């Protein structure tokens, strides 16, 4: 949460600085236009390094906030998926008492606690005594 708050603080600081720079530029334009001396050419006015830095900082803040937003959206989506999976597992466990007690292999799968029903040589009677791995 502190990352978001620091990003918001940075954006706020940049916005305040940009507003101050704009008001200072407006004030200097008003002062230059009221002087009776040299002619003022508005086409030659540029924001300068301060304007570039303010624009770059604002763009970096927007990009950073975009990355943070995507990260939070992904995290929430994953949490939602996990909650759905847990809810489905709990519903299945409540519906099938054997699934809650032991799960897959212990409830009758090969090699688990349910292998007492196998043949005398330790292999399943349905398989005919031959295993695909040759053991």
TrEMBL record:
Residues 1-20 form the signal peptide. It comes from the Bacteria. The chain crosses the membrane at residues 50-70. Keywords: Membrane, Signal, Transmembrane, Transmembrane helix. Residues 97-135 are annotated as: Disordered. Residues 100-114 have a biased composition (Gly residues). This is LPXTG-motif cell wall-anchored protein. It comes from Leucobacter albus.
């Amino acid at each position: 949460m502190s990352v978001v708050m620091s990003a918001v603080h940075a954006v706020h600081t940049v916005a305040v600085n940009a507003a101050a720079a704009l008001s200072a530029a407006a004030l200097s334009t008003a002062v230059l236009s009221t002087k009776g001396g040299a002619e003022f050419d508005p086409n030659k006015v540029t924001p300068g390094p301060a304007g570039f830095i303010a624009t770059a900082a604002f763009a970096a803040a927007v990009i950073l906030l975009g990355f943070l937003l995507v990260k939070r959206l992904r995290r929430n989506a994953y949490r939602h998926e996990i909650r759905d999976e847990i809810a489905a597992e709990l519903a299945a466990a409540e519906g099938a008492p054997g699934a809650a007690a032991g799960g897959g292999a212990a409830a009758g799968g090969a090699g688990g606690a349910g292998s007492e029903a196998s043949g005398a040589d330790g292999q399943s009677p349905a398989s005919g005594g031959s295993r695909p791995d040759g053991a």
